[in-house]
Amino acid sequence: MTNSTTEPVYQLDVLGSGYEQATLNFPDDYEGEVTATLIRKKAAQPTSKAVLYIHGFIDYFFQTEMAEQFNQHGFDFYALDLRKYGRSYLPHQKYYNVREIAEYDAEIDQALAIIGAEGHDAVLLSGHSTGGLTTTLYTAHHPDHPLIKALWVNSPFYDFNMNPIKKKLGIPNLSRVGKICPDLKFPSELNKWYVPSLHKTMHGEWDFNLEWKQPTYPLVRLSFVRAIYEAQKEIHQGVSLNVPALVMHSDQTKNPKKWHRYAQTTDVILDVKHIDKYARKMKGDITISKIKNGLHDLVLSEQPVRENVYQQLFDWLALKGL
């Protein structure tokens, strides 16, 4: 157990040898007790560089190949399972329940403090999808953070992928209702082929916990819609970053209604044109990389594609002095 004044106590993580986890504790919220989980995998040789990775919606950290890639390139790897996700979920909680993205600042603050105390002076902050939105805003809101030296986002959730009229009229109204009735639910419109494209028991090559990363999620709470909408408004205005940022996304979006090869070669969750549009509105040293045949989670793409992701990522980090 840990809080802001105690050292974390690590134990073996569910991912096995080399992976450790520590529980982070926070004040109770509107559902009661709250925890998050910090996972780490240290590089073979001591290093002052680290990465802190934040997962997306209906997700948790399981991407061991990514962790090992960072270790091989001289980074200690850390990841958070945010409150109410994955390892951090508690029986009295609603999965993934959040009312504002800033709720996650507490675990990011604490994780960075631990990373600094463990001998690191340079951190790459990283996030996928909703985690990409969260880490972009965290970086913008903490321009003088002593540890954050760069940002890498993998298909960040900078806008809702839905009919433009429905989005323009519906999302603001749903957000207003969500402030008053946060637990009301609304159809998620998430493509049903995404998780089947990934899991090894279906069409993919990856093994992960299907309770923590659920195959279907037909209804989403309006509290989540509101939290994302309010966060995206800031992105849409154009945030300023004072560290280099690498924004990666697939080269195309598709929405297959039945099983199709597109589910293994495109982003079926977000519209990549939105990611590109709002990345270009950000101010600072911003690099945008379009990955041919990339999935929504680029590091889970087919092997040649993810090899390209890592090649571009580590070339960019070297160019930026990390």
Automatic annotation (TrEMBL):
One Pfam family assigned to this protein is: Hydrolase_4
UniProt keyword terms in alphabetical order: Hydrolase
In what residue span(s) does the Serine aminopeptidase S33 domain sit?
A: 47-252
Q: Which GO terms describe its molecular function?
A: hydrolase activity
Known InterPro entries for this protein?
AB_hydrolase_fold, Hydrolase_4, MAG_DAG_Lipase
Keyword flag Hydrolase: yes
SUPFAM superfamilies on file: alpha/beta-Hydrolases
What is the protein named? Alpha/beta hydrolase family protein
User: Could you tell me which species this protein originates from?
Assistant: Acinetobacter bouvetii
